[in-house]
Amino acid sequence: MIVSMTAFGRKESDGPWGHAACEIKTVNHRYLEIAIRLPEDLRQLENGIRKLISTRLNRGKVDCTLRYEPDESIDNEIPLNLELATRLMNIVEKLPVRGMQPMNPFDILRWPGVIQKDPPDADTLSEPILKLVDETLDIIIAGRQWEGKQLGGMILDRCENALTQVAQLKEQLPALIENQRSRIINRANELSINLDHDRLEQEMLLLINKMDVAEELDRLESHIAEVKRLLNQDSPAGRRLDFLMQEMNREANTLGSKACNIAVTNNSVDLKVLIEQMREQIQNIE
């Protein structure tokens, strides 16, 4: 089953260690690119989170954001740097400002370093944080699989439409070649040109070979069969599918360049439209 590269997941977790929230967003990308945003106190967990993501996802641009708040109910006493607070108050009193409003103690508490908080223990938080990230990845993978299933259905529908176009063109091909041969003979007769029969047949054979698109149609059928096979396998297939779309588009262009009839031209255009629609969807497949 194919997997999309687009998904969003969010998960929160609480425990004696505090509260954490993890958000992961993935979009399409040529390779696996991981960007992680963490509180500075938990920066040492980045390698573990990056390794976990790389084992669960194969391709895409991944943005992982982790927010953490310690459990404030554990300690009833708020540690203060009284020395720093006193120095700040003394400095404020020495300012040469007339009519200054009374000092608000909450302004002092907002000053960096006045309220002293012990940094969280990253080793203690490692297990619950990694578990939270892993559960968020479960949400991401489920979303990618669901969207991949929808994309696969749309691509299969267009594959069937393309096969219909190829089958119609194959059915019409003998009649188209015979019509072209008759046109050349009729044109020669209208011009009252006395041509050597063998030479005429030889030239018509060369012209018909240039207009023959049987090989292109066979290759298109082969490529479509490979696309359908890849859509049913479990391993990542996005890059190979993208390559097949390039090959199919090349064959459709060749059909258009060899077109000797408006029906062939229309089939070629219809095929190119279907291939482009599939290619746009395949850009989002892992």
Task: Please give a handful of descriptors for the protein shown.
286 residues, alpha+beta, Ribosomal Protein S5, domain 2, 3 domains, four-stranded mixed beta sheet, 8 helices, 60% helix, 12% strand, elongated
* Count of discrete structural domains: 3
Q: What structural class is derived from the secondary structure elements?
A: alpha+beta
Strand content: 5-15%
The SSE order reads EEEHEHHHHHHH
Largest sheet: 4 strands, mixed
Assembly classification: single chain
Radius of gyration: 35 Å
Stated plainly, the CATH topology of the largest domain is called: Butyryl-CoA Dehydrogenase, subunit A, domain 3
Number of strand elements? 4
Mean pLDDT: 83
For the largest sheet, list the strands in their spatial order: 1-2-4-3
- Give the helix level as a range of percent: 55-70%
Tell me the number of helical segments per DSSP (H or I, 4 or more residues long): 8
Distance between the termini: 11 Å
Low-confidence residue ranges: none
The level-1 CATH class of the largest domain? Mainly Alpha
* Second-tier CATH architecture of the largest domain: Up-down Bundle
Rough outline: elongated
